[in-house]
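Quick one, probably user error.
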């Protein structure tokens, strides 16, 4: 038997991952993973179970387990981005990218540029909170696109959206794609990607009838007729009583009145020039206070609520949800390329005639900006999937997909054989199909810490959130069968013969 003090080289130059040698002896695994406090959220568990360590307020260091989760996400993103990107950069500012493209975009229209950087970013967060969800240092995977016509830029934008959707589908978690405000980034079109969570700071509405989804910041709400009736009644009563100073309670958190960002009490005399109009002529939907002066779109003066009418189909099936933003796509147009002089030669903008004989027009590039919050995604998923037992990772994010765990020293050689069978497994007739994992083979680790009790180690991996456990326990010693456990599939526990273990585990991972 080979020593557990060294990693064991295996087929294809791979090395056997062994917990005691590769993690525990260097203090990379927590030694105290006793039953969690039910009040602890996923952020606290990431710290307690040795995934991250807080260095300062809003600054976290990723430990080896957390770093493996981060690398899994980066690999997942890269696998999908390969369908779009031409080259990678390590810079992180759209001003820098635009200036860079200004230098290299000297050729013809075929020279589409896509820049795909992964970078640490920093912000002056006054009140860091909720662990990895609101920090001063975070990891972003950005994508900047440059096209020579608005039509091609919009086509690229839609392609990126499709790739983002396929990427997030691999998490096997429900997510929302919402119309959103472009904010200070600029442009006139953007979409956000969210995971629904009570810990979220954004609010999104979704119609259960037509599927319309939008951030409440841009909601094109229909004015509830009940609001118009209530305001008309107030004004009518004030006329009857000849009251010249009546307060109408209105609310919209985007509305600015007298320099205040929020207003709940407004003197209705200030809403109309001259004396108040008769109640029968009042229409809240067309009054000055019911529309955004910058966009002239109607505002929801009472704040959107679940059960309000949908602005698209009119059905009262709007649902308001708190969400965590994990991705954002922006269509920037020429917002940055025009002022920074990023231009390209384009025959589509030139005069008619033979392309070889016509001098191309020099036009500004149309840009797109897209980003996924890598570190924020880790915190969001940890929060959403943590349960009473501990963390619970999706397959594509888990530090390891499968843990092989022998009961004692006597089963260690057998466990190595099971480990090899799992890592070298290929499904019959499926050699041309890519696996769902970011890795080509199942990502397996051998639990070889024989100094710890078998049951203690089992519970530890439950709390660490690894998807599948393969146990060589009593059933192995009796008739050479493994017990396979999977918490995400309803606490599944199945006794499987040794020869069938690789195919069975592979089938489970396909569901995760």
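Nope, works fine. Designed sequence:
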């Amino acid at each position: 038997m080979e020593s557990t003090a060294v990693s064991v080289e295996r087929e294809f130059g791979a090395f056997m991952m062994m917990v005691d040698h590769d993690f525990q002896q260097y203090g990379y695994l927590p030694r105290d993973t006793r039953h969690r406090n039910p009040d602890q959220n996923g952020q606290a568990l990431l710290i307690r179970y040795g995934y991250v360590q807080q260095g300062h307020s809003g600054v976290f260091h990723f430990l080896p387990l957390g770093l493996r989760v981060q690398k899994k996400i980066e690999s997942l993103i890269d696998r999908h981005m390969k369908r779009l990107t031409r080259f990678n950069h390590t810079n992180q500012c759209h001003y820098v990218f635009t200036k860079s493209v200004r230098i290299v975009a000297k050729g013809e229209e075929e020279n589409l540029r896509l820049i795909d950087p992964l970078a640490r970013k920093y912000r002056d967060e006054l009140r860091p909170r909720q662990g990895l969800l609101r920090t001063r240092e975070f990891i972003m995977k950005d994508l900047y696109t440059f096209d020579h016509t608005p039509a091609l830029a919009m086509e690229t934008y839609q392609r990126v959206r499709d790739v983002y959707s396929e990427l997030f589908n691999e998490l096997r978690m429900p997510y929302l794609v919402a119309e959103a405000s472009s904010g200070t980034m600029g442009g006139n079109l953007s979409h956000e990607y969210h995971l629904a969570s009570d810990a979220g700071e954004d609010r999104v509405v979704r119609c259960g009838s037509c599927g319309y989804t939008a951030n409440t910041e841009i909601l094109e709400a229909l004015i509830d007729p009940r609001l118009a009736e209530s305001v008309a009644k107030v004004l009518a009563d004030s006329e009857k009583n000849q009251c010249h100073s009546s307060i109408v309670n209105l609310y919209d958190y985007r509305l600015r009145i007298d320099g205040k960002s929020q207003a709940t009490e407004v003197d209705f005399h200030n809403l109309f020039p001259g004396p108040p109009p008769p109640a029968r002529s009042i229409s809240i939907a067309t009054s000055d206070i019911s529309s955004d002066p910058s966009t002239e779109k109607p505002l929801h003066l009472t704040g959107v609520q679940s059960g309000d009418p949908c602005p698209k189909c009119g059905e009262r099936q709007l649902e308001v949800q708190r969400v965590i933003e994990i991705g954002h796509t922006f269509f920037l147009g020429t917002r940055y390329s025009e002022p920074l002089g990023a231009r390209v030669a384009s025959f589509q903008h030139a005069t008619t005639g033979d392309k070889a004989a016509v001098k191309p027009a020099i036009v500004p590039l149309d840009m797109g900006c897209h980003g996924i919050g890598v570190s924020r995604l880790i915190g969001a998923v940890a929060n959403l999937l943590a349960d009473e037992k501990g963390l619970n990772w999706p397959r594509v994010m888990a530090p390891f997909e499968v843990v092989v765990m022998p009961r004692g020293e006597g089963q260690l050689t057998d466990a190595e054989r099971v480990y090899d069978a799992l890592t070298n497994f290929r499904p019959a007739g499926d050699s041309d199909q890519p696996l769902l994992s970011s890795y080509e083979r199942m990502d397996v680790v051998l639990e070889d810490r024989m100094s710890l009790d078998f049951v203690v180690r089992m519970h530890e991996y439950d709390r660490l959130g690894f998807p599948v456990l393969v146990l060589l326990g009593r059933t192995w010693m009796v008739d050479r069968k493994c017990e396979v456990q999977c918490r995400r599939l309803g606490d599944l526990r199945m006794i499987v013969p040794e020869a069938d273990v690789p195919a069975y585990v592979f089938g489970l991972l396909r569901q995760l």
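The first strand starts at residue 52 and ends at 56.
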